[in-house]
Amino acid sequence: MTGHSTGQGMQSPAMRRVRDLLRGPAIVCDGRATIREAAKLMTDAGRRAVVIPTETTGFGIFTEGDLRARVVVGGIDSNQPVSTVMTPSAVTVDPDRLGADAVTDMLEYGLRHLPVVTEAGALMGVLELSDLLTSATNQGFELRAALATAQDDAHLVETARAVPVLVTELVASRVSPLDIGATLAVLIDVTVRRAIELVVDGDERPDFAWLSLGSVARREALPSSDIDSALVWGGESHHEGADAAKTIHDILDLCGFPRDTKNAVATQARFARTLPQWRTALRKWVSNPYQDQALVMLSMLADARVVAGDPALDPRPAALDQLRLHPAVMRLLLREAVGDKAKLHSFKDVMTRRTGTVDLKASAVQPIVNIARWAGISVGARTSSTLERLKAAAGSGFLLDDDAQVLIESFEVLQQIRVRHQTDQFAAGRPPTDEVVISELTPLSRSLLSNAVREVAGVQRRLEYAASASALPDIDP
């Protein structure tokens, strides 16, 4: 990720490793300690959280917020064991992750404290939101909370109007476009979940999983992102579910998160199936990838993410496994990723004349996303993030280290140009799109754009040659 320095020349907390942001070891107590004793430990140490080791879940956590909400407001006796009011399975963060990633985790789960735990299970400390806080970050947390607690659909729609305003402020604060994309995706997720809660009666909620697809699922959302979705039913699907999906998307449309224009949404029978039906479809698509838009469907499921409902109904793991078991399908994914160079050539012509328009997503970003998907799945990466897939595949034999770095840097540059262009459109009262008038770009942006597209095309050519020469390794299932 790209970041920026503070006025004092110090590195932004967002770009520092979590281990370097810790203010000291964690405050730890036994689960049998009383709530009063745990609270005294926090007060004496000047900290806002205490960690409780557990035999079953690793670590529990008890915070000042828990003390207020669960003990004071809940009227619980402070002489009760702290284990009765702690969060029994704390969300943790690896010490080598960036501060920006930790902020995204906090925003996603609505947390202000993350125990920092090594891969070996050692507790290093507790990262607090205040260690990372900026004005824009704080606004993101406040907006997330407002969206999650909207009283009705009208209130949700009204609250969601602040989302593009926040994105504009994040851009003005020089937040990385990758972090902006992750933040926006989290806010969209929260809005989707709240819309589902408002539409579906909690007491009669069907057994289901609501999937996010596309850029939002990859946490690479931008203001122009539309909402692709799918449903997985645990039991039998029914018409009431389709009606509910339509109502949910109607609310999201009003919130400023429009449904996919190509109808890749849960209102369509093609995107709403029982789990056995999804698995049957997966087997059909990998067996005959030339029919039924098989490659499109497989690619979408490979990026999918459960936003609401039962995570056990997620069809994505099965999709990834099926793809790795079918090398012929993976070769087709590679062919698709490197074969569509017509747009790049026409883009080059446009750049030479400095006239006309170009679709930044189709002409420049999508090839990177497609290569990353193929390479990441090839090496067994379970992430859907474009950058994480590229990092996982770098130097693997499927993707040269240099080529992976070229794609990473190009992706960052292109996302920066896209988000600035789209926030400019929003400020001018126009709907955000990826259509850019080349002559309206600054000379620097034109140069960066031209270089990025040229570099991506170069990687495509090298991969195409490697595939034709049978120089790529076999996928190890």
From TrEMBL:
Domain of life, per lineage: Bacteria
Keyword Repeat: yes
This protein's UniProt keywords: CBS domain, Repeat
Species the sequence originates in: Rhodococcus qingshengii
CDD domains per the UniProt record, alphabetical: NT_GlnE_GlnD_like
Signal sequence annotation: none
InterPro entries assigned: CBS_dom (IPR000644), CBS_dom_sf (IPR046342), CBS_domain-containing (IPR051462), DUF294_put_nucleoTrafse_sb-bd (IPR018821), GlnD_Uridyltrans_N (IPR005105), NT_sf (IPR043519)
Name of the protein described by the UniProt record: Nucleotidyltransferase substrate binding domain-containing protein
UniProt domain CBS: residue ranges: 86-143
UniProt-recorded Gene Ontology molecular function terms: [protein-PII] uridylyltransferase activity
